[in-house]
Amino acid sequence: MNAFIYLGGNVYEGGYIDRPTENDLVIAADGGYKNALRLGAKPTLAVGDFDSFTDDLPPSVEKMQVPAEKDFTDSQLAVDVAQKKGAKQIFLIGGLDGRIDHALSNLALLESLWHDGVRAVIADGRNRVRYIESTSELVLNVGYKYLSILAVDKKVKGVYIDGCKYPLKNARLERDYQFAVSNEIEKNCALVAVRRGGIFIVESRDAK
Length: 208
Hints:
Blueprint: E1 2-6, E2 25-29, H1 32-38, E3 45-48, E4 62-65, H2 74-84, E5 89-93, H3 100-115, E6 119-123, E7 127-133, E8 136-140, E9 146-151, E10 155-162, E11 168-174, E12 189-196, E13 198-204
Parallel strand pairs: 1-2, 1-5, 2-3, 3-4, 5-6
Antiparallel strand pairs: 6-7, 7-13, 8-12, 9-13, 10-11, 10-12
């Protein structure tokens, strides 16, 4: 099952964002409910401490409220709920601009989900990020200008990029020396592979 989780922060027009179908689980994390409505999604569940969204929810939306003083974020809560409901692929919408602590914690969820056997991507219309580890990934050209590969582990080995302006072959990336940024997909897709270690695959576009 796929789950779509709408987070707070800005979601920008003009960039590709995955959209739920009628069979997907749709969850709003606190203020992310506003983003869901603006994008035409219909959450059936809203979770969080609701310090950002204080309006009444319609009867069709189940509300799961937790205290503001807690040892997890609203994003983490929404992800946990989605996993317990059986989600094997999770799309996080929003949550990348604004406070950097929230953005970094949301990015960390991608690695955590990977280790739980759940594929995940986070996007806000200007950036789209996923995490992979010791495997390969096909990246479709959906309109983001840049493709960057960022090492998450201290050292990452056997990195390949094919189908881009600047290909890589059996490269080594290091967390404290990130050079595989601002590449560009030349055709319909690119192939990214890593033999050992974890990486973020980042699709991005400039603000207009």
